[in-house]
Amino acid sequence: MNSNEIEIHKELKKYFGFSQFKGLQEQVITSILDEKNTFVIMPTGGGKSLCYQLPALIQEGTAIVVSPLIALMKNQVDAIRSLSSENGIAHVLNSSLTKTEIAQVKKDITSGLTKLLYVAPESLTKEEYVAFLQSVPISFVAIDEAHCISEWGHDFRPEYRNLRNIIKQLGKVPIIGLTATATPKVQEDILKNLDMADANTFKASFNRPNLYYEVRTKTKNIESDIIRFIKQHKGKSGIIYCLSRKKVESIAEVLQVNGISAVPYHAGLDAKTRAKHQDMFLMEDVDVVVATIAFGMGIDKPDVRFVIHHDIPKSLESYYQETGRAGRDGGEGHCLAYYSYKDVEKLEKFMSGKPVAEQEIGFALLQEVVAYAETSMSRRKFLLHYFGEEFDSETGEGADMDDNVRNPKHKVEAKDQVVKLLEIVRDTKHIYKSKEIVFTLIGRINAVIKAHKTDAQPYFGSGSDHDEKYWMALLRQVLVTGLLSKDIETYGVIKITKEGLDFIKKPVSFMMSEDHEYTEADDETIVTGGKSSGTADEVLTGMLRELRKKVAKKLGVPPFVVFQDPSIEDMALKYPITIQELYNIHGVGEGKAKKYGSEFVALISRYVEDNDIIRPDDLVVKSTGVNSANKLYIIQNIDRKLPLSDIASAKGLTMDALIKEMEQIVYSGTKLNIKYWLDDILDDDQQEEIHDYFMESESDKIEDALKEFDGDYDIDELRLMRIKFISEVAN
């Protein structure tokens, strides 16, 4: 080591207590100390912040760190302050400070005490701050989360675009750009935008070998699946990401009711609650945080053991960043995502209101997520390929840490099909995205194909011996092996590479993995409020049926009035031994449980004891319970033919919320006669038309009905008619 190297090792030990740098840290720090523009691409948990903190502490002047999140800054400032006896060594400058606090910050910077000043990009645009910073020595400007500059980044912030002009006003200071996620396109964007093409670029490997990647089909019993998963990881810390605040609240509640210590976290909670919940998680007062993506930016909890995506994220960057919060200490980290194409359609719907260019980018990013979820090749290889990194799925570090590698799908020889695919890409002259390539192969026409007259070509339909799913799977696998490339600049147009052209000339074996089947059929197994998957205890079923017969006879009613068959089967699966647990049985409401339940739970309790049965704790997913007083009020007042609008306002409900309550009532078997209300909205012919639609339709989905009637009826009319239909036909 030369004297400089010895010096920075000494400083590392002095400030941070480490005797060794990690990965590329030392090279990056040397570049910054040489006052060079520096660009650092380092995955979450790779020790990015130390790269600018150490040089800032040992150089003359103050380093400015631009960061998009107040929570992140606060976290880092606290960490730096803990290294020094002086509080003023690090400061935050943002809109939350008082005049007195601002004066203190300026004083500490002027006296040379402050080494790191964290600012939000908005604060940097204030003229008074810029004028002040021009008057003091600045060591460098570090831009954290630099992908916010690029609209191709998953977290684009327009105010980041102007940073370059502001930094120029501060004189000739070196710029350090740092990001934890950057596809080649985003990297190029950052360098161009910060005008630092000459920067020393350092890119660490994105491979996190200790993380296990898994994707499961999202079914209606996702809550019990999550509960079961968490109970298998008892006492370990985890994060569950959901897309909406409402979902965050409801999942957190379900977990709490089921004996898991969990708190919600989203931007709709006040700052005090958010900070409290974050601290509870960091201090291990709770095991699980259920959050929107607002959570976890800069949460430096090293021992998060699992990250669950309840909803699929909008881009692979977000996914990578969020899963990257697991296992930062190098220990196990289980990354579990639930996938259903319905969620993707929901995200696409959200995007449809945005400007076209933004939509195109959004769709392109989302399609990558779909490809990741549906692929059957090594997920690690797929992810790393996306970030422009090669990975050997045989020998690479962490190669067996994913569900696809551990449970490999069947492979088939696809050499001839690869040639056919490559020829189509070549012959259509690189104008199409994946969808049109596949349509050309199977012979399906859409507007784009028609416009280019591709349907008139001899090769149109040449791959119709396989279906769309097959070709899509093959195309993904061919992309990852590098025979084709996707040009993200043009929103995902597929091009053939030199290797692809060579393959056409001299084809070799290509073993293709069959894709995952994510069928909606899996939706049928429900645990909360539906029949559970699993097999009922047949002996107990027989005993319960006998008891039902006896009770029914005594009351002079048919047996199904007491409990229906699905309820009996569910009891023989979940072994409820209290009236409360009986509420969670399919088709059993509170009233029914209290009315008929005592003899049944007594029988089950004896049976469990006599046969040493271990009850499936995790199967009795307690629901959070819906307001039964509301339900009663609704039922009684619909009987009195009170206008629905009056019922809603009396209970402080929106019309949408009232309809939701009514849907729950009829779907759990209670009749509601709302014809009196519908007669004011729709005439008999219209009612009959919608009734007939539901009678013949294969699904009761409102989206399908809206499509079918194409604007003739609005969503509330259709939902109310569906309530009437279920009430009359099913109950």
From TrEMBL:
It is an enzyme of class 5 (isomerase). The keyword Ribosomal protein does not apply. GO terms for biological process: DNA recombination; DNA repair; DNA replication; SOS response. InterPro entries: DEAD/DEAH_box_helicase_dom, DNA_helicase_ATP-dep_RecQ, DNA_helicase_ATP-dep_RecQ_bac, Helicase_ATP-bd, Helicase_C-like, HRDC-like_sf, HRDC_dom, HRDC_dom_sf. SUPFAM superfamilies: HRDC-like (SSF47819), P-loop containing nucleoside triphosphate hydrolases (SSF52540), Winged helix' DNA-binding domain (SSF46785). Keywords: ATP-binding, DNA damage, DNA recombination, DNA repair, DNA-binding, Helicase, Hydrolase, Isomerase, Metal-binding, Nucleotide-binding, Zinc. Its cofactor is Mg(2+); Zn(2+). GO terms for molecular function: 3'-5' DNA helicase activity; ATP binding; DNA binding; four-way junction helicase activity; hydrolase activity; metal ion binding. The keyword Transcription regulation does not apply. GO terms for cellular component: bacterial nucleoid; cytoplasm; replisome. It catalyses: Couples ATP hydrolysis with the unwinding of duplex DNA by translocating in the 3'-5' direction. Residues 29-200 form the Helicase ATP-binding domain. It comes from the Bacteria. Residues 534-614 form the HRDC domain. Pfam families: DEAD, Helicase_C, HRDC, RecQ-1-like_HTH, RecQ_Zn_bind, RQC. Residues 221-378 form the Helicase C-terminal domain. Its EC number is 5.6.2.4. Belongs to the helicase family. RecQ subfamily. PANTHER family: ATP-DEPENDENT DNA HELICASE Q1, DNA HELICASE RECQ FAMILY MEMBER. This is DNA helicase RecQ. It comes from Flavobacterium anhuiense.
